[in-house]
Amino acid sequence: MLINYLTRLTESCRLCQQEGFRPTTCSGMDGLEGMLQEFQTAARFVCVSDTSQCSTFERGGAWYERRVYTVWVVSRYRFGDLDDYRRACQLCREVFRQFQSRMIRDRECADGSMLYLDTTEMRSNDLGADFLNNATGLYFLVTMERPLDLMYRPEEWNEP
Fold this sequence. Notes:
Radius of gyration: 19 Å
Number of helices: 4
Shape: elongated
Order of helices and strands: HHEHEEHEEE
């Protein structure tokens, strides 16, 4: 669900379209395969991890599942060109800013499809100049918190 949502954001964001950002997926930082497969034909990516960190917690007598996903916004730059590096960093930060504003809006939409998207705190980290083969950008964390049914059901257990 979140991968499809962020793919749609990338495809509908005017800035992403103008600058040629491609949506792709990966399996965490050690598996940026989706982006690496297209590295020869594209210079900019929004890469969503198909893995997440998960925790279960109780709040107000109800149980919830919190999943945290990582999204990379990456742009290549010309080797040794500090101005191009800075432009690439700023471009990725602006894409993130636009995504944030859209996520806040979408969380409050009447259809409720993104109701569990946590927009109270959205963290990001810059990648720096040595990220990956003349590419830089940032990654940000997206949190989804959904109610979880942890009701005990005796029929699920083989006990006397």
